[in-house]
Specification:
- This protein is α/β, with parallel strands linked by helices.
- The chain has a single domain (5-261), classed as TIM Barrel.
- It has helices spanning 21-30, 45-56, 80-87, 109-126, 138-147, 166-174, 193-198, 231-241, 246-261, and strands at 5-10, 33-40, 61-65, 92-101, 130-135, 157-159, 178-181, 207-209.
- Helix 7 (193-198) links the parallel strand 7 (178-181) and strand 8 (207-209).
- The longest helix has 18 residues, at 109-126.
């Protein structure tokens, strides 16, 4: 029997999939990917609207809404009303992705911190989990999350596409956060080894997997446009690192994702 997977973070609403989105979804379903979380956060409010429309058109898709830290510099107060309205829709299961990116610094760091705090507060108000993009900013991210009651058995939070150290993973897990691993765990370079090492620092009850497609296609698909069907390769690698079968890893992460996002 084909294992059932959930891709907990995918950007299939984007223009990279406009020519063959239906085929991409068909390949995902054939590979056993039965649920996909579509992230509506890149650019402006139009991205969130696009993700929600896509989720509402398919029973097996759900959406999140926010503004990516790369783009918060262009955000103004008029964006909050439509984002709040979208967040109230039935197929929206989280606020995100929001967070901090001190690697690229596409938005000023003080603006990133302010908007991250605001989105985290919105998630708490709406009783939704918050999906976090954190790169080279883990100390500040943990502080902001803690200040707004995320983790520690309170509001739910997901650290998506984890790229920190094993110690960072352990610290997030200690807060009660979910930690999601992408195709980076399959990469051959030395920079991926700390991320593989981090797998054992996350309790299995807090472990998620994702594609972050169209980015970060896993080996053996690296260099291609990533898509949800490829999460199977990430699952196989994670399972091997944890001495689990791919079937057990699929069942575990699917259940964790349902719990993290409140899915049926």
């Amino acid at each position: 029997m084909t294992p059932t997977f959930i891709d907990s973070h995918a950007h299939i609403d984007g223009p990279e999939f406009d020519d063959d989105r239906d085929e991409v979804l068909s390949r995902a379903r054939a590979a056993g990917v039965k649920t996909i979380i579509v992230i509506g956060a890149t650019g402006d409010v139009a991205a969130a609207e696009r993700a929600v429309r896509l989720a509402e058109a398919h029973d097996d898709l759900y959406a999140t809404v926010a503004i990516h830290p790369h783009d918060v510099a262009q955000m103004d107060e008029s964006w909050w009303a439509p984002l709040r309205a979208l967040a109230a829709r039935d197929k929206v299961v989280a606020i995100g992705e929001t967070g901090l990116d001190y690697h690229y610094d596409h938005s000023p760091r003080d603006v990133q911190r302010r908007r991250f705090a605001e989105f985290t507060q919105l998630a708490a108000e709406l009783d939704l989990p918050v999906v976090c993009h954190v790169r080279d900013a883990h100390d500040d991210a943990r502080r902001i999350l803690a200040e707004h009651g995320v983790g520690a058995g309170k509001a739910r939070g997901v650290i998506h596409c984890f790229t920190g150290t094993p110690e960072d993973a352990e610290a997030y897990a200690a807060m009660g956060l979910y930690v999601s691993f992408s195709g980076i765990v399959t990469f051959k370079g030395k920079s991926a080894q700390p991320i593989r090492d981090a797998l054992t620092k996350v309790p299995k009850s807090r472990l998620l997997i994702e594609t972050d497609c169209p980015y970060l296609a896993p080996v053996p698909m690296r260099g291609k446009r990533n898509e949800p069907a490829f999460v199977v390769h990430t699952a196989e690698k994670v399972a091997g690192e944890l001495s689990m079968t791919a079937e057990d890893l699929a069942a575990l992460t699917a259940e964790n994702t349902r719990e993290a996002f409140g899915l049926p």
